[in-house]
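Supplementary Text 2. Reproducibility record for the structural model of the 259-residue chain.

All settings were left at their defaults, and a single model was retained for analysis rather than an ensemble. We include the record here because the model underlies the residue-level annotations in Supplementary Table 4.
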Amino acid sequence: KGNGRTRLHNALETEIVSRTKTADLDAEHQPRLLNRDAITDGPARQRFAATQEASARGHHGGIVPDILVRDMPREGGPPVAQQPLEVKTASLCDQHAYQGDGRPVDALAEKVPGWYEAKARRLDAEFCGTPRDEEGPVLRRLRELPLIWALAFGAFGEWSRGVDRFVAEVSHHASLTPERFGCCHGPEQARGVIAGWMRKRLGRVALRGCARVRLTALQVVARTLPGPETSTAYADRHAPGVWDEWDDSGNHVWIPHGG
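Retained model, structure tokens:
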């Protein structure tokens, strides 16, 4: 209720792009041009391109990943020219739906490549008349790219193994220039510092966003506030500067007043 999940998703996407750029990597929000020319035939191409543009604006309907990282580093191998990333969030109901032998966030992340293939088949059928059991131009383009890298976040701020792997790769790349992060003891020390910093930033966004999702839903369902925008403003008004104070304190253990 109240689109709190959308805000959480967008906040995570923005934070991931920002931290990736800080590590001196080229990251792009909603890369609408990535698959736009998959269809080359006349009117269908124009309609598909328009769908991609609308998908990038509304985060829905096309086959546009959330983030594209160019020259994505891979430890022990050459960098990947274009690595698409997809951010996913899970509600508490989703947590039960994805419950299996492992962690729900990992189960959610594992489903994302299959969802992209299904979406590509649907678009091929819609714009090119390709039978669902055959490979059309959109699916072909999707398969030419590296497998979509899913970054899944759960209802309690936890995240999938793919997030840890992403942090490790980005921090390894950033550690090659440790002076950017004020690390004076070389790449090994820098890598640990940068990885911890990235996890802290992502964790804060995820936990704060999950709390906002619940507060927004409660306020909308109980009708204590007119809508989600007002509830967000309410939270900001009653907790000004929390982010900056937490960063500046140096002591990340909460101590009650008078304690």
